[in-house]
Write a structure and sequence with these properties.
Blueprint (H helix, E strand, L loop, with lengths): L2 E19 L5 E21 L4 E5 L11 H12 L5 E7 L10 H16 L6 H9 L5 H6 L2 E6 L3 E5 L6 E7 L5 H7 L13 H9 L3 H6 L2 E2 L2 H7 L1 H12 L4 E4 L6 E5 L2 H13 L6 E7 L9
Parallel strand pairs: 1-8, 3-4
Antiparallel strand pairs: 1-2, 2-4, 2-5, 5-6, 7-10, 7-11, 9-10
Helix pairs in contact: 1-2, 2-3, 8-9, 9-10
The structure holds adenosine-5'-triphosphate (ATP).
Length: 297
Amino acid sequence: MNTFRIKAYAKINLGLDVLRRRPDGYHEVKMIMQTVDLYDDLEFTKLAEDEIRIFTDKEELPADQGNLIWRAAARMKELYQISEGVSVKLTKRIPIAAGMAGGSADAAATIHAMDALFSLGLSLEEKQKIGVKLGADVPYCIMRGTALSEGIGEILTELPAPPQCHLVIAKPQISVSTKAVYGKLRVNELAPEEHPDIDGTMAAIKNGDLDGVIERLGNVLETVTVPDHPEIAEIKEIMVENGACGSLMSGSGPTVFGIYKDRELAEKACQALREADGGRLTRQVYLTEFYNRKKAR
Ligand code: ATP
């Protein structure tokens, strides 16, 4: 095999809580991760030369060591003494620096692709061990689906798929840094009601109770981002005014998702979001759904 194509799927968080800040600066989290049907396309081709070449359709993304694809491929080459190189064509669709784990998903896809291209025969667990060194969300992106994520994100428990629904995803025209958001979070000063009920969300998922999931949507990081960026609250409001049963910021933001039971309402909400503030509020609006197919590719 000389060429291998793979899709790298984005995630949202149906719940995100931070339990404490560890002495080493990492935060202990308790999150419900959910893969969504929004993906990057990656095409890997073997090279005779000992090089990693990345071609991307997004100018703002690095094509060298700064790209997680490069780092994942280099790690695999080093670990398995692969002397051949690889060329990677990335078609980027997942919003960048948006709280949707786009870079981690690409790193996970790279580990799957290198395993397949060079016939390494790695297990899921082996791939996840390699992944965690590249980023806390990479082990989850290797497994995909619905999961509880604990520790710094590396302790994963698979959950059943929640009932299907329509998802509207919108990223406002602002950037937030994950590091800055966590840095500003004062975990010890949060009121108990500011912590989402992650155990309740898990129980609702296990019971196939979408309303129970919606009732408990909560992301503790909104306490940092929403006061600083009113655009996030504005998008949530437009989603709800247009029929969302619930809406929430994903990860450290600024992307927001809305859950709809009715496809027509979801389509209308997309339109309203695109037109908001003369098209200046958001230029990235997607209509999608949960993605829970088991296969890794
Ligand atoms: P998370 O949800 O894990 O916090 P994110 O959505 O906030 O992720 P990413 O899109 O993964 O953030 O990217 C964050 C930064 O990583 C960007 O500023 C980008 O320059 C860099 N980066 C490196 N490689 C990639 C990649 N393959 N795709 C996207 N960003 C990448």
